[in-house]
């Protein structure tokens, strides 16, 4: 599990799929999902999405980037989808996280 998390952190903004993650850490997709669910209670892809949203909040709080830029940086092609996911996780819109 630690190798998987390290790989995710090192490639947080790169395209990551379950298949590519499993291949990178030399596990089957099923084993990887099972380990994540047992240890963290979520799938590897849900973990990636959560980490990207956490990072998006940090990026927004710097004030350097607008919402659209951050959405693209963390893997969302659609700002509306990013805004909805952000609001679900943090209870406020991304724009309210900017200084």
Number of helices: 6
Q: Beta-strand level of the residues, as a percent range?
A: under 5%
How far the N terminus sits from the C terminus, by CA atoms, comes to 36 Å
Query: pLDDT under 50 segments (min length 5)?
Result: none
Overall outline: elongated
What average pLDDT do the residues reach? 95
Using only C-alpha atoms, the radius of gyration works out to 14 Å
Can you give the helix content as a percent range?
Answer: 55-70%
* Structure classification: mainly alpha
Main sheet: strands, sense, barrel: none
Number of strands: 0
Please write the string of helix (H) and strand (E) elements.
Answer: HHHHHH
Describe the structure.
The model has no long low-confidence stretch (mean pLDDT 95). The chain is mostly helical and 99 residues long.
Gist of the model:
The chain is 67% helix and 0% strand. The protein contains six helices and no strands.
Relevant terms:
99 residues, mainly alpha
Topology of helices and strands:
Blueprint: H1 2-10, H2 18-24, H3 29-40, H4 44-62, H5 67-73, H6 79-90
């Amino acid at each position: 599990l630690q190798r998987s998390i390290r790989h995710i952190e090192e490639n947080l903004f790169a395209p990551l799929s379950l298949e590519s993650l499993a291949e990178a850490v030399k596990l089957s997709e099923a084993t990887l999902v099972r380990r994540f669910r047992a240890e963290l209670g979520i799938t590897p892809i849900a973990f990636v999405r959560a980490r990207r949203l956490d990072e998006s909040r940090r990026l927004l709080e710097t004030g350097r980037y607008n919402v659209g830029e951050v959405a693209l940086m963390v893997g969302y092609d659609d700002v509306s989808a990013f805004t909805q996911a952000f609001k679900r996780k943090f209870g406020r819109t991304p724009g309210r996280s900017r200084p």
